[in-house]
Amino acid sequence: MRLKIAIAGVLTALSVACNRGTSSSPSASDNFPVAGTYHVTHEVDQDNSTHSDEFDTDIDVSTREKLEAAVGQEKGSHCHDKHVEIGEGQFTVRMLCDAPDGDIHNIVTDRHGSFSRDSIEITEDTTLWGISSRESYSYRLKGR
Description:
This protein has one domain (10-143). It has helices at residues 10-17, 64-71, and strands spanning 36-46, 49-59, 77-87, 90-98, 107-116, 119-128, 131-143. It is mainly beta. Strand 6 (119-128) and strand 7 form a beta hairpin.
């Protein structure tokens, strides 16, 4: 039986971040992405196959708080031991999650990437029982 790992979309987390307000402003050194419409290329590598799609979406991760909420979004259910680092145009997230039915515990999820004023690169690696899957998103600003 082939094991299928359900991967929560980081896109959803980025879209949710659009609805969160914050009063802090980004520093010049952090160079957070501007709010706007982004073209997204999404790829999933799992079970020796690759699936990809492309679409446009409006996002706002223009502050540290908004970006952290988006890239630190829990995947799956019952996540714990989450650690998020953001700085100098890069981020890393590591968390452990349990399967929704509670049968599988401590599924390791690593999410990392980079960002600039007009782009975001996100890669998520999940490992369960020695089987890895990778999901990636590439965002390019289309307009403001």
